[in-house]
Amino acid sequence: MALANDLRKGMAIKYNSNAAIVLEVTHRTPGNLRAFVQCIIRYIGTGKSADVRFSSTEKVELVDVTRSALEFSYNDHEGYHFMDPETFETTTLQKDFLGDAKDYLTEGMSVEVLYVEGRAVSLELPPSANLKVAQSPEGVRGDSSNNVMKPAVLETGKSINVPLFIKEGEIIKVDTRTGEYMGRA
């Protein structure tokens, strides 16, 4: 048991007798009222999200979470395949489970998978990924008055805005949290 004040993003709790993962936590102290903790949780069994409010002194039951470092191998019609670098076991995760994370996966990339009660519940990417520019139109020379951007399609199929000087075939660094260009790799 832990206090609601101690909840953090990525923790697993038992709420209404169901296991749930904490997606977001906000501590609030409104004017003349008692402090409370506002959480957005996702139920592991159903995948549905809920907005929950706890008193700051309320006790919450924690669920054991195990983290496993895996490397992305490849994807096919069955799903996305990851390998444990220590045991060489393969884990397959479905496209809908990965969500936007699939836009940043390249061969050999290390990711962290969270398991609750033996079931994969979320995938954590590194903060940035080095991706190759697959398609990008040429920048017009006179368009460089300010921070002018152009669209580019990356090797994974994701489309982002990059500066005019980036050409096809270059490897760039992309922020996996926001999807924005960070610089050349």
Biggest sheet layout: 6 strands, antiparallel
> What is the distance, rounded to the nearest whole angstrom, between the alpha carbons of the first and last residues?
45 Å
Encode the helix/strand succession as letters: EEEEEEEEEHEEEEEEE
* Unreliable stretches covering 5 or more consecutive residues: none
Oligomer: single chain
Number of helices: 1
Estimate the strand proportion: over 45%
What order do the strands of the largest sheet run in, or round the barrel if closed? 1-6-2-3-4-5
Second CATH tier, the architecture of the largest domain: Roll
Q: Kindly state the number of beta strands.
A: 16
CATH level 3 topology of the largest domain: SH3 type barrels
Arithmetic mean of pLDDT: 87
Features:
five-stranded antiparallel beta sheet; SH3 type barrels; six-stranded antiparallel beta sheet; OB fold (Dihydrolipoamide Acetyltransferase, E2P); mainly beta; 1 helix; 16 strands
Topology:
Elements: E1 2-3, E2 12-15, E3 18-28, E4 36-43, E5 49-55, E6 59-62, E7 65-76, E8 79-83, E9 90-93, H1 95-98, E10 110-116, E11 119-124, E12 128-135, E13 149-154, E14 159-163, E15 171-175, E16 181-184
Antiparallel strand pairs: 1-6, 2-3, 2-6, 3-4, 4-5, 7-8, 7-10, 8-9, 10-11, 12-13, 12-15, 13-14, 15-16
Written account of the structure:
This protein is 2% helix and 53% strand. The model has no long low-confidence stretch (mean pLDDT 87). The chain is built from one helix and 16 strands. It folds into three domains: 2-62, SH3 type barrels (Roll); 65-124, Nucleic acid-binding proteins (OB fold (Dihydrolipoamide Acetyltransferase, E2P)); 128-184, OB fold (Dihydrolipoamide Acetyltransferase, E2P). The protein is flat and about 60 Å long. The protein starts with a strand and ends with a strand. It has one helix at residues 95-98; strands spanning 2-3, 12-15, 18-28, 36-43, 49-55, 59-62, 65-76, 79-83, 90-93, 110-116, 119-124, 128-135, 149-154, 159-163, 171-175, 181-184. The chain is mainly beta and 185 residues long. The strands form three sheets. Strands 1-6-2-3-4-5 form a six-stranded antiparallel β-sheet, with no helix packed on it.
